[in-house]
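ok so heres the complex, three chains, lmk if somethin looks off
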Amino acid sequence: MDYLLVSIIKILIIAPLLLATLAYIVWLERKVIAHVQLRVGPYFVGPHGLLQPIADAVKLLTKEDFIPSGVNHFFYWAAPWLGLMFSVSAIAVIPFGPIVEIFGVKTNLGLADINIGLLWILGLAGMGVYGIALAGWSSNNKYSLLGAMRSSAQMISYELPMALALVAPLLMSNSLNLREVVDTQAGFVFGIIPNWNLFTGFQLVGFIVYMICAFAETNRIPFDLPEAENELVAGFHSEYSSMKFAAFFMAEYCNMIIVCSVATALFLGGWHPIVPPAIATFVPTFLFGLAAAVLFYHSSHPIRPTDRKSFFVFGVIFAAIALVFLAPAAGPILNSLFWFFAKVGFLLFFFIWVRATLPRFRYDQLMKIAWLFLFPVALANLVLTAFFVTLFSK
Amino acid sequence: MSLYDLFPPEFFKLSVPLSAYLILSAILFTIGVATFLFRRNVITIFMAIELMLNAVNLTFVAFSNHFGRVDGQIFSFFVMVVAAAEAAVGLAIILMVFRTSATLQIDDFDSLKN
Amino acid sequence: MDLVLFLTFALIAVACALNMALQRHPVSSALSLIGVMVSLAVLYVLLGAEFIAAAQLVVYSGAIMVLFIFVIMLLNAGAEKMTKKAGTAHFLGFPLLVILLAISAWVITNATSAMKPVKFGAFTKGGPYEVGWELFTRYLLPFEVTSILILIAIAGAYRLANKEME
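and the predicted structre for the whole thing:
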């Protein structure tokens, strides 16, 4: 029962953190898009709009839960939660770090350490479409239905090249357990190039194909045809309000975290640092220290009057985090967590960046990209990788 | 009151007889046959076939466990592959039939009768 | 724990299967069938067939049933009308089905009474490695034949669904 206890503790830590992260990714997205478009974004609730997610949550919770006439009540109610459940459960097999010893208990940083980890994620990604499909179908609205149909066709089409792109790095790591896949990417070639599948495995093509499919699987711009505002009102969630709408939102952002984590684990070496370990232990301290220094500078030369106080407080927080990374006991665990979340964070930023930059595809273009471009490219990449793996192993 | 009080430790140690899995499989198969016989919608009938295939798969996997060999699982894997092929072709046929007759009721597909 | 898990998911599977048989609307039936498939995946894990459990999720509930739902939504299928033509099937079918179930249950209990019970963790050869090894060595020919079958199915489905456009 020791295992059960440890698992419950881990769930109690990860679940609230995940929910908070989902809320703050929305804040991050609004801020980043605002700055791309030369605005400031949320600013008035809390310092720099940092309490905006809480205000949003309160607003969504207290809003009227409007149910239009003619809906199929059971499916209308179940669809958002079904979608959220499938995307949240996929977080269970994501490895955030290696096997470590905390307070004398040896455990892996992550919920489950199973040998079908990647298949579990693929299965849940395939089932995630039910939330969207049922929402569109039960809403009794033709725009919702069109959005749902587009979404299911799109997700079935893009799942194929995505799975094929994922198989190539698996061939090199020889395991479906994500932690073991990351473990095989440790170390450096010639002391400088990290031994990631992206670099030493020559998986650049696979990585690009995977990222394009990831955009389509999460219904993000440029593949957000299921919720194209100018054609379909809001697509499959047109008729949803209040917490049910929030559930769709959370599911989308959770899916983003999942696909970015999978990309990190399979292509970008998981928690292994990009620079040799001698330097790597000081990188987090250096980065957080630099951030603190910048904040202290702006606090002493404020552009807006409120910055004098708020930037100073943030600077102190960042300096404290920088010092925590130097602590000998927690250092190694925090370092691997830092590298994992830094990579996931960069990919999430990339998602937001693309949303602020690119227009939407047309529907026939979307299908053509999947079947006539991504599928052959992923297949060729897989065959080439298999060929070289057999050539060079043993 | 802990979980141990609700479920005594002996309860956790009880193992499942093999026949339980097989009887579950038989029940699912019978429900599949019933659905196949009594329902009038082509898509539901098609789903009944999938349910029967699933029931048979459970038997294969249960016996694979019993004999300690992986062959049963391989066979259920092949059943899945065949089911996927069958679903693709079958649903395409249903689409075609719907285009010509605009109905999904199986009683109405009688244009070859007499 | 084995028995608790087995009973829970066996009950869910039977309840979902019955719901599938009784619901009037194809979407409800499809959703119930997904419930059966997911609970069967849990039972596969209990039987030590981890890879098959994952394949069940990916292939059955992630691909085949999505296809079903897609077609139901595409055809905008409504609730099913009950017709009188099934009368004889009702009259004869139920007793015959009960007899079928009774006979199979009797045969199963008699034939397997001496067999050892299933213990979780006793059989560990169901991982992706073992299944893959068997699949690509001893069962290579059947595997290749199924790949040809899939190819034919793709071509056939494409031909059938595309007929209107010519």
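quick notes: Strands of chain A lie at 99-102, 105-108, 188-189, 193-194. thats all i got rn
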